[in-house]
């Protein structure tokens, strides 16, 4: 049975939400950006895009291209609320909804098509319902799998609806540049170009042994992508915890820092964010990874494997410091990140050491107070100055529920 | 776009309708009464066990964000913005 997958992608999501909140902004060039001096543009309205303003661009560059650009400070609480509402709307059409990021989702509508009057009618109804209940427009792509649904949802943005029938796949692949496919980034694109591969059609026909020689097992995936083949299921968040491999947080610092005291303070904040999320979802991890990015964007990670899974803030922090102590920071630091990997879900063994048991009791008391009064209501004195803006960016891994709900 | 973050306590007149609908209709800020002509959007966020309801409203010229703490029932004027 041929599957029918929809990819629903909100149009310039953050900017569109701001336009709904303040209708005077409609049609004006606006950019939604984080706080701070060296922020990047997280979303530009279509009017701003006409001036060459793009997502991911430094705000200073955006203002240079469009001096009349209206800059709105990113309000993630607003966007995550609207996102959760949109996911609820999508779930009223099928339970098989997989949020892919804060503003896009996959729907497996294979079994509901007959009673919905066909894919075009269903897609239009979804668009209408989202518009009616949120005031926002979205683009919908329909195709036999997730890879192609995502590709075609971008063909007629904004407010578009594109349907790719199984019979049209090869023809579309023939003229689609490889860089348009989700999962083929600029580096892979360059490597493929050096082999004379520019389009998906060329990629799909390229001899598999050579591809595998160049890319290893990824060569097989690339070959299938070139032919538009992909068969991963649409996984609702309730079934998706198994694919969560790590819990992590990172922060771009307001300014580059060299002193280890500041670095340590930020690591404590990140350890609390990671540990808190792990404890809330009853999981712990055996691997702590520290990520450092220098001001020249050189980025590296170091990890440590723990004797047993941990979720305590203090112990995650101590292990992060062990990693830090083995490093020599040769440049000022721009970004720091901590993640907890090799996750174990469910009940974990309580420590038998009295000192750790006291620490765990203190942690439990802190968690209860913060559950009642909000995150960081009671925290380490050192953290206070670092909290503002600590979670201003919505991670691409954000989900409206479950372990990935990080903001 | 100028947006000022305020977080100032204000007095708000609101209609609590059926279900959980709330429609603020006026507010008093710094001794002046503002009539709300439009409620453009509302959203909520949780902090601890409290739910905060946000309302993007307009008095016909400027834009305001009012926030109701669902536990204490205290209103704050969170932001005010104009296009100049």
Word description of this protein:
- The complex is a heterodimer of chains A (407) and B (84).
- Chain A has 407 residues and is of the alpha+beta class.
- Chain A has helices at residues 13-21, 46-49, 59-65, 76-91, 113-116, 119-134, 146-153, 169-175, 186-194, 200-205, 208-215, 218-226, 260-280, 313-325, 354-373, and strands at residues 5-10, 30-33, 41-44, 70-73, 97-101, 104-108, 138-143, 161-163, 246-257, 283-294, 299-310, 333-345.
- In chain A, the strands form three sheets. Chain A has a five-stranded mixed β-sheet. A four-stranded antiparallel β-sheet of chain A has the order 9-12-10-11, with helices on one face. A three-stranded mixed β-sheet of chain A has the order 3-2-4.
- The mean pLDDT of chain A is 89.
- The longest helix of chain A is centred in the middle third of the chain and has 21 residues, at 260-280.
- In chain A, helix 13 (260-280) packs antiparallel against helix 14 (313-325).
- Chain A has 15 helices and twelve strands.
- The radius of gyration of chain A is 23 Å and the shape is globular.
- Chain B starts with a strand and ends with a strand.
- With 84 residues, chain B is mainly β.
- Chain B is 0% helix and 73% strand.
- A seven-stranded antiparallel β-sheet of chain B has the order 3-2-1-7-6-5-4, with no helix packed on it.
- In chain B, a hairpin with a 2-residue loop joins strand 2 and strand 3.
- The chains are: A alpha+beta (407), B mainly beta (84).
- Chain A binds chain B through residues 17, 20-25, 30, 70-73, 77-78, 80-82, 135, 370-375, 377, and chain B through 1, 3, 40-41, 43-45, 47-50, 54, 56, 58, 63, 81, 83.
């Amino acid at each position: 049975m041929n599957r029918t997958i929809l990819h629903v992608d909100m149009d310039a999501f953050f900017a569109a939400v701001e336009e709904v909140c303040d209708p005077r902004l409609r049609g004006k060039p606006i950019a939604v950006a984080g706080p701070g001096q060296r922020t990047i543009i997280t979303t530009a309205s279509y009017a701003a895009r006409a001036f060459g303003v793009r997502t991911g661009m430094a705000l200073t560059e955006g203002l240079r291209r469009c001096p009349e650009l209206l800059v709105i400070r990113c309000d993630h609480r607003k966007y995550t609320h609207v996102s959760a509402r949109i996911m609820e709307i999508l779930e009223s059409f099928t339970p098989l909804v997989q949020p892919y990021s804060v503003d896009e989702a996959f729907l497996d509508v294979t079994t509901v098509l007959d009673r919905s009057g066909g894919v075009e009618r269903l897609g239009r109804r979804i668009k209408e319902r989202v518009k009616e209940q949120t005031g926002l427009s979205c683009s919908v792509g329909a195709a036999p799998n997730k890879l192609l649904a995502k590709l075609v949802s971008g063909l007629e943005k904004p407010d578009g609806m594109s349907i790719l029938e199984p019979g049209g796949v090869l023809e579309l692949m023939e003229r689609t540049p490889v860089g348009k496919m989700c999962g083929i980034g600029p580096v892979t694109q360059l490597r493929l170009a050096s082999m004379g591969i520019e389009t998906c059609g060329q990629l799909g026909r390229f001899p598999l042994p050579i591809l595998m020689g160049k890319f290893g097992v990824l060569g097989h995936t690339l070959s299938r992508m070139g032919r538009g083949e992909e068969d991963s299921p649409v996984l609702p968040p309730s079934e998706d915890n198994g694919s969560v491999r790590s819990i992590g947080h990172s922060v771009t610092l307001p300014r580059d820092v060299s002193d280890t005291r500041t670095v340590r303070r930020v690591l404590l904040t990140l350890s609390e964010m990671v540990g808190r999320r792990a404890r809330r979802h009853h999981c712990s991890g055996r691997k702590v990874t520290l990520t450092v990015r220098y001001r020249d964007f050189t980025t590296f990670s170091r990890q440590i494997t723990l004797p047993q899974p941990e979720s305590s803030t203090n112990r995650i922090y101590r292990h992060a410091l062990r990693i830090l102590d083995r490093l020599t920071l040769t440049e000022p630091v721009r970004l720091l990140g901590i993640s907890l990997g090799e996750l174990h879900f469910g009940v974990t063994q309580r420590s038998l050491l009295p000192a750790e048991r006291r620490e765990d009791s203190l942690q439990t008391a802190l968690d209860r107070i913060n559950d009642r009064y909000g995150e960081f209501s009671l925290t380490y004195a050192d953290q206070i100055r670092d909290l503002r803006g600590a979670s201003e960016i919505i991670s691409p891994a954000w989900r409206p529920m479950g372990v990935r709900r990080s903001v | 776009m100028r947006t000022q973050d305020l977080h100032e306590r204000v007095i708000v007149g609101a209609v609590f309708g059926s279900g959980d609908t709330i429609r603020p209709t006026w507010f008093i800020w710094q001794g002046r009464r503002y009539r709300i002509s439009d409620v453009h959007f509302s959203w909520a966020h949780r902090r601890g066990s409290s739910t905060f309801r946000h309302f993007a409203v307009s008095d016909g010229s400027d834009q305001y964000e009012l926030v109701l703490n669902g536990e204490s029932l205290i209103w704050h004027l969170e932001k005010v913005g104009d296009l100049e």
